## 1
Amino acid sequence: MTPHLVSSADSSVTPATQRLIRDRVVGQSLPAPFYVDDEFFTLDLDEVFSKRWIFVATEAEIREPGDYVTIDFGTRSVIIARDDDGRIKAHHNVCRHRGARLLTEPSGSTGTIVCTYHSWTYGMDGRLMFAEAQAPGFQKSCYTLRSVHVRSIAGLIFICLAADPPTDIDDVAEIVEPYLAPHRLAEAKVAKQTDLVEDGNWKLTMENNRECYHCAGHPELLNVFFPTWGYSTDDAIPARLEPVFARYRKATAEAREVWDSYGLPHPRIEQLDTRTTGFHIERDAMDLAGESFTLDGTAACTRLLTDMDEKRLGRLSMHLQPNMWLHVTSDHAVLFSAIPLAADKTVVRTTWLVHADAVEGIDYDLDRLTSVWEITNQQDADLVALAQQGIRSPAYEPGPYGPSEFQVEAFVNWYITTLRTNLGIPSIAAPTGQTA
Ligand code: FES
Ligand SMILES: [Fe+2]
């Protein structure tokens, strides 16, 4: 029996859109409207980016009281700041007087937040401190900036705009913190941050990230990143990758000994579409020297992130739905977030972290530290743009995901389940365990 569509709380969701969400075919890429239509773009901002935990920054970016970053997506803008007591706060970037945008820079440092319009002045904790010439009885305490839920997990800052954010972030934090904590990201510093605008829908950016089927397009990265990632059985591995797979097995056996000797957790955990805050975490070996994302695999920074005197830790990698992935090696971390700009435009923000005491030019060369991922990012951006171009054509129809694209399927399944859950659209497929 075909499930009936139910009327959504948001009446702007058309029956045609509801049908597309209801009828998504498992194991295939999405129909074109998901990637090109403004209605889906608005829906993604409202139902995904405003109701799930999203990765926005690192503690390294707001180290001192008064430091802030702003994050904009769609019509939303959020201030993430360190207050005078050293706490991390997040507020809507909207003045409580007549609504003006408060902070317009992407980042900075300030003692107070002063509205440009009529100079209402807020503390970094959001409290209104000054509002000139108000009527008797005006209560400043009634006009604190509207707060946004925020939390740090091992130095990674997440926000959720929902009134009642998904509570399973606590479970996720408990699982991933033991993996991340030894790398001391909360104490690191930013070596570089870049924003790359991709000419594609944010879901294409994420889908591209979730597979290495396309990794032949990354010759620089493949010096150290095993392209066998995503292949789970010997049978599924293409013949061209068999020698690499043999090398990967050897490197993995050696890496496991190193991880175990330092008590570093390394079992792969795959919960990308089986919970509301979907994630994946794993340690994996790297090729050549096995130390870092450089052309020869040797460390790019002599000052290591960890207390361990061990460079050959491979990579710790984490994916979190909907918009984040990261890799941590012994000497640095590289973190990525996707921020939707328009139906066909997405910012990929890349942040490189090194030990707080590492000195550029002495402990690391910035080009060597960043070049592999800068090149790789551009290659990915070109691939995403090609996908967007093809999907715009009336000739496009959804195609099948192969076994090595299982994380792409997990991403799309998580996305579709999120929309169905939030909009009350019945699922034909088996439920995945997500809750609103
Ligand atoms: S709108 Fe901000 S002070 Fe008037
Ligand atoms: Fe890629």
Note: The chain has two domains: 1-51+175-436, 54-152.
## 2
Amino acid sequence: MSEPQRIVIIGGGLAGAGAAAALRERGYPGEVLLFGADAHRPYELPALSKGLLIGDAEEPDWVRDQNFYTEHDVALHLGTRVTRIELGARLVLDAAGGEHRYDRLLLATGSKPRSLPVRGADLTGIHTLRTLDDALALRAAFAKADRVVIVGSGWIGSEAAAAARKHGAEVTVVGMETTPLESVLGPEVGGVFRDLHTEQGVRWRLGTSVADFVGDEGAVTGVRLTDGSVLEADVVLVAVGAAPETGLAHAAGLDLSEDGGVCVDAFLRTAAPDIYAAGDVASQFHPKYDRRIRVEHWANAKNQGEHAAANMLGDHEPYQRAPYFFSDQYDLGCEYRGLANLDTDRLVVRGDLAGREFLAFWLNENRVTAAMNVNIWDSGDALKHLVDTGTPVTDDQLLQGDLSAIA
Ligand SMILES: Cc1cc2nc3c(=O)[nH]c(=O)nc-3n(C[C@H](O)[C@H](O)[C@H](O)COP(=O)(O)OP(=O)(O)OC[C@H]3O[C@@H](n4cnc5c(N)ncnc54)[C@H](O)[C@@H]3O)c2cc1C
């Protein structure tokens, strides 16, 4: 593989900017162009639904500091959307009329929040949360709000509910699941989060969905549920998941997977010559799981971006890391590693579920497929080892044994 002279990266989030940094940190001497539709310097997203939304932090975590890009000769095209990729000519076209040749191309366009296709969805006061500007607007709205309705009981909905409570608003969360986070954690562990929020004064409308939004003079005043009841609201956050940003890839004729992402192989390569994808947008054939997975987590964006950078420079290593994510809500902090199949895996809990200090293991027969630590911080390496190796274990070992001694 000859050394590329110019690498173009589309997407100035963690995957894209992390890849640009990794290219330089690996000593790549050629040109690096990074295009980001967002006008802000590349930043990480987790604080947007936590410290920044609460008001504890004034800035997000930046992927690199202000001077990094000039000091490392990364041509940063901020506020510049790429509008087309021409595979044959190996060109990227941007909205400002620029045409840029590439030798290698990384697609790191992330995801965009899903909206609700119902009447009233365009009323003011209805928010989604993806960008720094979204978070600043939502924070300002929470600060003034009396009644907040959050549609969606997943991670972002749950974290935003905690933030809205900290701002002193009345908060109701509407979810289609009967327990928050049920599709990721199942009812038992999801129930821990429900009880935590309930203690903090959050109200729930679960197992239901939104019929439409009610407004007055263009501003939202309520959320009508499918049973006809109306929840009064002056601020609404729609947090019903995100869809991968695949418009460019689709228009260029790249393969998309059933999960909506851009198909890449174990090495993060698309089927088109010299085009890679990483982060939320990538649907990777993952060697550990022997199937495609698309992961919308911070660690995946960070690690895949860096991994794609190395492979673009000729490393040719498969990406094999298991998914990992974290969340913070009130005084609960947790980490989750792996990928459970809630239809088939069984749950083993060590510790105090009600006291919110426990380890949860999901097992396929006697192998740990996923593990979660809640308010326990000394088991991370052992849990990672169990998930990564799939070492056979007994329930007794998980419940009482020394986890770090399991080979
Ligand atoms: C509010 C929030 C909180 C989160 N909290 C956590 C957490 O606590 N733990 C966790 O593990 N994960 C968390 N996540 C998920 C995690 O942050 C994402 O999985 C990760 O940031 C994805 O990074 P990315 O680089 O793939 O995509 P993004 O960060 O979405 O970046 C993609 C970038 O591409 C740009 N772009 C798109 N199309 C174009 C184009 N045509 N031209 C130019 N630029 C383009 C976009 O403007 C965007 O800046 C959170 C996500 C959100 C939204």
Note: The radius of gyration is 22 Å.
